[in-house]
Sequence to fold (171 residues):
Amino acid sequence: MGVRKELSAGGVVARQEDGVWLVALLMTEHKRGKVWVLPKGHVELDIKERVSDAAKREVEEEAGISDLAVKNQLGVTRFRFQAETAVVHKTVHYFLMTTNQKQLTPQADEGLIDAAWFPIGEAIKQLEYDTDQDIVQRAWDVLEGRPRQRRRKPPTSRNGGGGGRQVRIRT
Fold:
């Protein structure tokens, strides 16, 4: 069994409606059931794609959002999981993105079965992983102009593991 490194990028996509920030989440099916996640995907290193460009492309593809403005880099998560043939060490760069587009279209051929806008506080509660929750909280702080807050407890899966261990966020 080998080890494989993967580089991905994604986004916290926000839009404002009636003074409330909404965030786009995608539903996928994991071994433990249906879970809400942030849009993300692989950086195309063979064409020397920039991480921010990959984040925008992946959000466009996975959520069907064509009207996107990339704002700030929010942070980087690192985790590992067991794939069929290797242990995967994955690094994901997240960016804050804004849009006025209301329509979401989950990318079915990537296993995405639903997409929805959630008020940002509710989005944090819906996400499967603590590190994703932290990234959305960071986005909320940026959107509201609040100072960055540090997380005190180590990040872990909300449901106690089974789908990869989230290890840390860095900015």
